[in-house]
Amino acid sequence: MEAALDVRPTSERLKQGDATETVALSVPDMVCGNCIRTVETALRNIDGVAAARANLSSRRVIITFKTPRVSVEDLVSALAKVGYKAGQLAEGSADEQAARRSDLLPRVGVAGFAAANIMLLSVSVWSGEASDMDPSVSSLFHWISALIALPAIAYVGQPFFRSAINALRGRRLNMDVPISLGITLACGMSLFQTIQGSEQVYFDAAAMLVFFLLIGRTLDEGMRARARGAAENLLSLKALSATVIEKDGFSRTVAARSLTPGMHIAIAAGERIAADGIITSGASDIDESLITGETVPRAVRVGDRVHAGTVNGGGPLQIDATATVDNTLLAEIGRLMLSAEQSRGKYVRLADRAAGFYAPAVHILGLSTFIGWMLIGSGWEPALTHAIAVLIITCPCALALAVPAVQVAAMSRLFNQGVIVKAADGLERLAEVDTVVFDKTGTLTLEEIRLADAANIDDETLLHAASLAVASRHPYAQAVVRAARDRGLKVESRDGIQEVPGSGLSIESNGHVERLGSALWVGNDSTSSGDASLWYRRDNGSPVGFRFADRLRSDASEIVSTLQNAGYGVELLSGDRTEAVARAAEATSINTWRAATRPDQKLARLNELKSLGRSTLMVGDGLNDAPALAAGHASLSPASAVEISQTAADAVFQGEKLWPVVQTLTIARAAQRMALQNFAIAVAYNTIFVPLAVTGHVTPLIAALAMSTSSILVTANAVRLRTMKLRLAPLRKSP
Amino acid sequence: MTSLAWLLPAALTLGFIGLVAFLWALRSGQFDDLEGAGWRALDDGEPRAHKPVPDGHRGD
């Protein structure tokens, strides 16, 4: 039917017929070799697919296909048929990541080659010094080292040089400034000494240094790319498609992101709404829990506005899409987020803070060594040699590896437990948290609601109600069915059930009329019946009320008490009604809670906590949490969260349990502790070797050994984090 | 001493061949999917009868 709409000239369409397109789909459930084959076979069997190649590491498939014949929706539905959920990735997300990886890895290879060969030559020279190597041979070896080292380091060191130049341009100091200076001086002086035929040649130290640093940087980059990829995969499953009804009455499926205002969209019951719009036909109940935190569905009819991301719980709807800019809710949230994010941008990372102290200290030390040797009258050449030796030995190899090595270990441990840390400085900020603010709906609770007073309802009534409810996709109806099934009742659908969206269900069989729905629908006009939201009535019998509550995550109260025992302040901020929030707060024993908070009120509360000197972790999933997530000192959101909230959060956790929140805080704090330990190792190393360098006792052998040992020590310490037993230690009380 | 004249170039050439091999493997995408590559080695390649051969065409 797409072809029927094509109004381009035939020649153009024919050319289009040969065009191929390549897309990347994420398939998160692909976990084994058989999955690769199933996915690839399913795709290749589609007529018009030229190639499909699955990547198990990134859980993605790259597909090349002929454009007009096959659409992305066809590919997704073909995968759905063989049991794999798939989603299209945002454009460019795959390429950018690949480009970064391929930039660093060849450099690691070249650095490894250079370091190995220079070491080979250096070891010969060192052992030659003990025996009787001819000076001309050692000079030859130095020249060959120079020939390998200089071009290799010029190529391999570029990431460090570039970053150092950028920092200097911005009038800042980062770790790459002393690194670049150390490498450049080591090479420059070694070249000079090689020409002079002397023994102070440091090519080996420089090459090893760059090699180790590059490995650290590649691992760091690789872990980040993996986390970013996984986060993108999660988001791609949120990408919605919509059924658009064309003017000629045909309908076609398009991706939500290609919807434009004015399009006419049909929404089936149970479907997530892909665009903001105004209802043109139909009536239904809209589940807005992801947007507002409110668990009770909102009844809507023609002329009402619906928001993207909400779920149509009742009958089929048709809407006219409206532009997102005129949507006050989204526009307001966007504005709030922008201002909230700016405040967080000022965070300075631990390594950069260390560099702020370290780099000036190193440069002053080098300078004073030079001046000192000049003052005792050694002449400028030895003075310069010793000063440069100080700069080489203090080159922050261990310091530059200290933080990345720990973060890679911490991130991969969290990754294996289903927590994806996306923000580069996320772990550091998580480690500083002392207050945790939870959202209720979807965060402390699951999105599903449950029947609250099932015990008061007898089996027969529940079974009858459930056999009606099974025909509906309304959240209440589904909760009734779940309750019946949990009790072991066999719920079967019956013929002849009528559903009136916004009202309820009814059936007439064997002369009996049964109704399930609102109080009005079953004809119950008494107001004394409490807060029941769903009613069941058989003929003229007395109506039975059903009450609902949202279901707490199974470990919610345990997690809250773990946090409270460790000294964290715990608060609850929800957009839901007061009674519902009070119930959840009581069940989890959270004393500080606020209900019916709007997004700007949540943001205000976080800013208030900040002004009290608290570092807040915001845990939330809804659109209404997004500004607060951006404003919190750190933020977490479940994988079920809306797109905008997942993007705003520092880390995303998967699974039904809330336990990852504690786990993330524990590991973040352990990582911080480890990073400080590593700094201590680096400082200890400097206190041993700097005096040697200042007094002019650093030989090339000592420089090479010292650099490698400190790097290996720091990395080995970080690796411990992968297997260490951890538990949430109590916070130190701040004054 | 003369042995150095050929030992050094030999060592450097061998190392260089290793480097070129690594860069070639990298560029041809052999490190793109380290998990999947292991599984693919076990795959026989023949798709399992997803397109049944029509009776009349058997043995052509």
Low-confidence stretches of chain A: 1-16
> What distance separates the N and C termini of chain A?
70 Å
| Main sheet overview of chain A | 7 strands, mixed
Q: Which oligomeric form is depicted?
A: heterodimer
What would you report as the Rg of chain A, rounded to the nearest angstrom?
32 Å
* Beta content of chain B: under 5%
From the alpha carbons, calculate the radius of gyration of chain B and give it in angstroms. Answer: 24 Å
**CATH H-level superfamily of the domain at 419-446 and 552-654 in chain A:** HAD superfamily/HAD-like
Mean pLDDT level of chain B: 76
Which of globular, elongated, flat, extended, rod-shaped describes the shape of chain B? elongated
Q: How many strands in all of chain B?
A: 0
How many distinct beta strands of chain A?
27
- Average residue-wise pLDDT of chain A: 83
Secondary-structure element series of chain B: HH
Percent of sequence in beta strands of chain A: 15-25%
Describe the structure.
- The complex is a heterodimer of chains A (735) and B (60).
- Chain A has 735 residues and is of the alpha+beta class.
- Helix content of chain A is 52%, strand content 16%.
- Among the domains of chain A are: 10-90, 2-Layer Sandwich (Alpha-Beta Plaits), CATH 3.30.70; 238-326, Calcium-transporting ATPase, cytoplasmic transduction domain A; 419-446 and 552-654, Rossmann fold (3-Layer(aba) Sandwich); 450-549, Calcium-transporting ATPase, cytoplasmic domain N.
- In chain A, strands 14-27-26-25-15-23-24 form a seven-stranded mixed sheet, with helices on both faces.
- In chain A, helix 5 (93-130) packs antiparallel against helix 9, helix 9 runs parallel beside helix 26 and helix 14 packs antiparallel against helix 25.
- Helix content of chain B is 58%, strand content 0%.
- With 60 residues, chain B is an all-alpha fold.
- The chains are: A alpha+beta (735), B mainly alpha (60).
- Chains A and B meet through helix 3, helix 5 and helix 6 of A and helix 1 and helix 2 of B.
